[in-house]
Automatic annotation (TrEMBL):
<protein>
    <submittedName>
        <fullName>Sugar kinase of the NBD/HSP70 family, may contain an N-terminal HTH domain</fullName>
    </submittedName>
</protein>
<dbReference type="Pfam" id="PF00480">
    <property type="entry name" value="ROK"/>
</dbReference>
<dbReference type="InterPro" id="IPR000600">
    <property type="entry name" value="ROK"/>
</dbReference>
<keyword id="KW-0808">Transferase</keyword>
<keyword id="KW-0418">Kinase</keyword>
<dbReference type="GO" id="GO:0016301">
    <property type="term" value="F:kinase activity"/>
</dbReference>
<dbReference type="InterPro" id="IPR043129">
    <property type="entry name" value="ATPase_NBD"/>
</dbReference>
Amino acid sequence: MNEQACYLVLDFGGTSVKGAVMNGEASILERCSLPSQVDSYDAFLESLLPKFDEFRQNYDLKGIAISTCGAVDVERGVIEGASALKYIHNIDIRAQYHSRFGLPVELENDGCCAALAEGWLGAGSSSNNFCLLVLGSGVGGAIVNSGKVTKGAHLHAGEFGYCILRFEQGVPLTYSELASTRGMVLKTARALGVSPDELDGLKVFELYDQGEPTVIDVVEQWYMDLATVLFNIQYSLDPECILLGGAISRRKGLIEKINQKLDGIHSHHPIAKIRPNPKLTQFGNDANLIGALKHFLNRQG
């Protein structure tokens, strides 16, 4: 058996739960994956049990750390709100795990976990005050103030995707609709008259790089909308930097393009002297795992 202290870390996503055995320095020793689309939390825990038994034979497991969608009340161990995984909400998650596995359990929102990872070992490690935006099917994120994740009175601080960027024909359009990868794909599909199923972020940028005029218009507006989101966050929360995550954040030249759009915004708004400082996150798909571990260590000592 590996005798160092280890932890089982789970990251709940819309289609799967990524699992890993990690040590206290966030090194991943072994991985697993399980379906997240099940009928109940009991059903998920039953699917986890064989893997847990295998891990416990090989590692000295000290606890279970969970990253999950939803508004997480970390004190009660309850996930409020709503998500694509209906079965995870409004039950005592910690009690579910503890009764089966007999280990300490901590859980936190996935956006907050990503921010904890970056603040601990990543791009936010030199800053006590930063924001994180995750660009994907929507715009999620988190706020770190004085080194701690800010949750807000209703556990929704950092849910930037709900914010309204502008109105069109009286209809509010949110950050998620305008500045997410999914939003860009949907607008491109409408402009080209094709099904969104025929496109993804990579395909849209491929058409952009090929000089497709219609796609150029959509993507340039997307860059401007994203830059405007960063500007608004800067003057709402005044972070030292704003970290950008999600698969699309790996797009070559993303930061340079955003800064070009910010140049234009500031040229028309010269009274605004503070400029957003966008940076890329350091961790990719493992950010939520690393942050969930950090949250566990913070809570359990």
